Amino acid sequence: MTENDKLKTLKLLAKRCARAMGQPQHVALDFVANRLGFPHWNALTGSANREWTPSEAQVASIKAFVERITSYEGAAFDHVFGGPNAITRGDVRGHPYELKTMLGDVYMEGEGWRIVLPENPSAAPNVEIDISHAQNSPINDRVLLAEAIGIAKELMKSVKARRFSDWPRRATKPDAEGTVRHPFLEMEKSNLWYCLHCDAEITGPQIAGNQWHCPGCGASPINIFPEAFWLGRNDEKPAPVQSRAEEQEIEPIVSVVDPRPRLDLNKNQVTHLIRSALFEDAASASERMGASLAEIWVDDDLEVIVSLEDHYWPEDKEPTAAIKVAALLGIEIELEVTWSDPLFAWPGLGTLTRSTAEYTRMMLDAYRSKGIVEERGGNR
Fold first, then answer.
1. What is the CB-side half-sphere exposure of residue 370 using CA atoms within 13 A?
2. Which residues pair with 333 in a beta bridge?
3. How far apart are CA 106 and CA 5, in angstroms?
4. What residues contact 81, with CB distance under 8 A and at least 6 apart?
5. Residue 115's CB: how many other CB atoms inside 10 A?
6. Cα-atom radius of gyration of the chain, to the nearest Å?
7. What integer pLDDT is reported at residue 52 of this predicted model?
């Protein structure tokens, strides 16, 4: 490789780096120069014109670095949906962890602890420690915690590179007027943007610098628009968003949690359990339709009223399984009977069989025996 080819290669690698990191080209060029021991790109090219030339090993090292931060292609990670094959295992100061991504976020989990690094770059890392490990968790060590978050951030660089590779270049690089192009609404470009969630007014450099998440409330890119079209004439006009300073460090949010599953019964859960028990009580095709047609009301205190259709559920039959379920849940159940038009003529046919198919055959035969023409498709 000639000297000129080496410089072209370095410049191309800097361009890839700029796109992956969402930076201007000149910043990436200086970044490459810094890794080769020069204060900036002009100093590197100036030396290359005189006595210095990059070695094959130096070019290879820059290439390896750029490929590492843009290594989403063919990588073990599924940066969008995660999955069992998208998990990397390692250890931080001797403590094992698993690392994966899901919908743009990075998840790191060890024994009794987990870290979530949100896709939104201005959001704080969330650190959870299981209550049973609260006193002796390695995450209590601030140095170890910082190292673990650093490992998660390394993966986030590849996640970001994948995202930026799908976006227009102008989505991450404002022009001289601060105009940027929306990464999804690709025909929309502006130097001012508005958040659907908090009504904030955001400049082009602000929204691009925060990877199209609202710097105010953290709303995702799909909530960012070039006009606040949802506001009426009398609504308060959007105010400029207050962004966090770039050099401001984001402290992780650490919380102690109880990971055990909690049962908070609600109306929907109780309704499903009671209806399932009614099907268990049903001894015929007719009674199964009665279980399906039953109206179940659950009040705010989770007390239950079950209204059973007289044509399909015998008035003197007690739904014992449903009563047992209610007793296990510690709630009261009240039964009542209603009368309405049956679904089909001769509803009693359903009491002669447990098979819905057999009931359907008997019901159709009964209709045909009366010379009734079968119709389909609703009201006629």
1. 10
2. 304
3. 38
4. 102, 103
5. 23
6. 33
7. 76
**Interhelix angle for 25-35 vs 3-21, to 10°?**
120
pLDDT tens profile 102-122: 888 999 999 999 999 999 999
Structure-token pair, residue 232: 């009426």
The long-range contacts involving 257-263, CB below 8 angstroms and separated by at least 24 positions, are 257/128, 257/129, 257/130, 257/131, 258/130, 258/131, 259/130, 259/131
The 3-state secondary structure of the chain reads: CCHHHHHHHHHHHHHHHHHHHCCCHHHHHHHHHHHCCCCCHHHHHHHHCCCCCCCHHHHHHHHHHHHHHCCCCCCCCCCCCCCCCCCEEEEECCEEEEEEEECCEEEEEECCEEEEECCCCCCCCEEEEEHHHCCCCHHHCHHHHHHHHHHHHHHHHHHHHHHHHHCCHHHCCCCCCCCEECCCCCCCEECEEEECCCCCEEEHHHHHHCCCCCCCCCCCHHHEECCCCCCCCCCCCCCECCCCCCCCCCCCEEEEECCCCCCCCCHHHHHHHHHHHHHHHCCCHHHHHHHHHCEEEECCCCCEEEEEECCCCCCCCCCHHHHHHHHHHCCCEEEEEECCCCCCCCHHHHHHCCCHHHHHHHHHHHHHHCCCCCCCCCCC
Q: Dump pLDDT digits (tens) for 174-210.
A: 999 999 999 888 778 999 999 998 999 999 999 998 9
Q: How confident is the model at residue 246 (pLDDT cuts 50, 70, 90)?
A: low
The band of 24, judged by pLDDT with boundaries at 50, 70 and 90, is confident
Supply angle C-alpha 71, 73, 78, rounded to 5.
95
Q: CB within 8 A of 372, min separation 6: which ones? A: none
Q: How far apart are CA 156 and CA 160, in angstroms?
A: 6
Q: How many CB atoms lie within 10 A of CB 273?
A: 18
The Cα 213–Cα 119 span in angstroms is: 9
> Each residue of 203-213: pLDDT tens digit?
999 999 899 99
d(CA 148, CA 351): 66
Amino acid letter at 284?
S
Q: Which tokens in the block code for residue 191?
A: 């130097």
CB 304 within 8 A of CB 270: yes
Q: In whole angstroms, what is the distance from residue 214 CA to residue 221 CA?
A: 8
